Amino acid sequence: MLPLAGLLRRRFTPQVRAAITGLLLALAPAEPARSQSPAAVQLQVRLAPDSAGSGARAPIVRSQHLLDDGRWLSALRSGLPVRLHYRVEVWRSREGWFDNFEREAAWDVVVHHEPLMDQYTLLTIVGARARERRYATLDALSAALEFAYRVNVQPARPGRYYFAAALQISTLSDSDLDELQRFLEGDVGDVAQGKERVGDALGRGATRLLLRLAGLPALRLEGRSESFTVR
Amino acid sequence: MRVLVGGLFFLLGASALRAQDSVIVIDPDAPPGDSAVVRGGPPPGVVAELIAFFNDSTTTRMAGDVSFPPGSAFQGKLAQYRGSLRVAGRVDGPIAVANGTLYLLPGAEVNGEILVVGGRLIRGAGARHDGPERVFWDAAPVIRLPGGTLALRERRRPLGELAAARTTFQTGKVRTTLFLATGGTYNRVEGLPIIFGPQFELRPTARTVARLDLRGILRTAGGGSGLTSDFGYTTRAELRLPTVGITGRMYSEVDPIEDQPLSASENGWSAFLLQRDYRDYFERIGGGGALWAEPWRPLRLELSLRRDHERSVHATDPWSLLRNSDRWRRNPLIDDGHYFTTGFQVDFDTRNRRDLPGTGWLFRAQFEHSTSDDISPVALPEQVRPAPSTGGGYAFDRLALDLRRYSRLTPSLRVNTRLKADGWVGGDRLPVQRRVSLGGPDLLPGYDFRGFTCAPRGFADASDPALCDRMIAAQVEVRTRLGLNLGYRLRDREGSPSGRFIGIEEADLVFLADAGKAWLAGSGPSQVPVNRIPSFDEWKVDVGVGLDAGEIGVYLAKGLSQGEPVRLLVRLQRRF
């Protein structure tokens, strides 16, 4: 470390030295992809039966125990909507080389509590479509959050495949919710063109940053299916 | 009970569906339909049946948590609202539960129909039920009146419509939105622009939208900017069909000269916090129209015409949080005049997401042909540009290209690449407001802001304007996800360390390399022949490493030229 420290002192300004040191410290406790504690929220990825006879399988994705983790229920009861962003990727295994990414599918589930009605609204969003359901009890909500999703991304070409799934759970800020509402109303013009909406740019990034740093819960889970062969 | 339901079918909201479907099919290839939101819920007939049952004068009505202990017996119609009904005894008669849970505990014996709407039926081992049962998990849209009876509840307005600075109401077929918002940036010419006005929207069919957007712009920086007025405006009328659209605009607004080295929002934060405004601006007053088409989903073509009066504006002295006593960098003068511009733009976009893409292509090409008969050119060194003719007939062509590829090598390893080029392609040389530069956080972060402006030796201008005819830059970055746990986890009420995490738990580790060159085209000294791109050994190259936590990224980058220091950068969004 001494030669490195000397190099740092000689070559860089104090601010840059501090940043390099911070970066090294940040890297030090790095750990591999998040492991799933059995008692915590879990993401399962399994394979649907081969219905076509070619070996092509569809993934079935399911999250469990979300409301067993008190953070999410606490966030919901504090008025913060909780967003579950699911993503499933189809990967083709290749011997001796990087696996090939084939395609992906993503969908969102947004849950929020409406205190005046004491109900939980669960919004499932796939592409430009959404379906809203309401639940009056935690039992029903909890069961609904554990629905399994069968994703129609069965590969067709022969080869050996697997599915990688990710679940990002986060809280939505008010502005995100507003944006979501506008999206659901069909106001997608500017977004489709990649343009910022009026008033969003300056505030949105900062809001998300503050929400994130403020310790509002966020969680990312990953899972991978068994491999299978398409003939 | 396990019911398999097609996702599209599910989203279409077939009334036969029941809430307890345990497998939902997601079909990413399903065609879009006419309705954006389908609201589920128990069938109206079931809700009416529930209300009728509950309100029947012969029904025993209860609310909250109620238990029938072992050995108890009840005869007749039993209705429960909210809470839980726990039955461990005998019930002879039908049971209805509204927005609650029915527990049939061991030893329970129920003889009669069970209807649960808005909750679950949980049956313990040894519980016995003789009769039909129907369970709907979706909440019953009912409300309990003071007299104890149930009534149908009307749907509330969506939460999003309650935002204070934006309200929407419907008059006939026209939806009107009034809004008051910031302009999305902060700069040394306008300060914080405040935007206000109405938007009118008519949807004759589900996939056809006619929109009129009227926005006033109040500039808060005060006088001295040379702007035509402290007020600006933009009006936009648009007709959007499924695959084509037409747009008309009139505007009096402040535009940036280059869209780099920081995005509008990042630049706004830099100006507001640090009094560092990395963009230059000019005023544009005029109008135009565009016709666009999307023949198939990733491809978009746009043809546009516009006539602008483009004017120089000056930096003022808006407040900033730090360094407020410093002087702002001057805003460069531009070649004032009226410009008539014909533009053509092609977008090909297969990215999976717009904000944080993980895979796909983006190709964007913009060509513009501009003419002016009354240009008032800024005097530039002959080496940069021969003095343009001012008697009319000034015309130039400009082309901007942006090609990006987002790819995944493994589920946790990503490689993103970008090639960007911009500049003059024909006609007279570019006006100042179309010229380009390199250096700074976006394209060449290892080099100083405006490190390469093509200003000849001896040329001094405090605004440090971009003077190059052309630029090209290539970027590559490799990303992998890291668990960081940079922060502190609070203890929960029980004292175990599983509460909130203050800080950043995960981030992308990013390795980056960039290369670029900005130059003057021509045959003179320090110029590159018009028909040639500089060879790669003339490009400036930098490398770097960083941590990108999504909303904030910290990078260290260093130019490979001799004497370049390591630079620390903070970004509030992805680099590209």
How would you describe this structure to a colleague?
The complex is a heterodimer of chains A (231) and B (576). With 231 residues, chain A is of the alpha+beta class. Chain A has one domain. Chain A has 7 helices and 10 strands. Chain A has helices spanning 2-11, 14-27, 70-77, 138-145, 174-184, 189-192, 200-213; strands at 42-47, 59-64, 82-92, 100-114, 119-126, 129-135, 148-151, 159-171, 218-224, 228-230. In chain A, a hairpin with a 4-residue loop joins strand 4 (100-114) and strand 5. Chain B has 576 residues and is mainly β. Among the domains of chain B are: 1-40, no CATH class; 44-152, no CATH class. In chain B, 5% of the residues lie in helices and 48% in strands. Chain B contains 3 helices and 36 strands. In chain B, a hairpin with a 6-residue loop joins strand 35 and strand 36. The radius of gyration of chain B is 32 Å and the shape is elongated. Chain B starts with a strand and ends in a 5-residue tail after the last strand. The model of chain B is unreliable at 1-20 and 157-164 (pLDDT under 50).
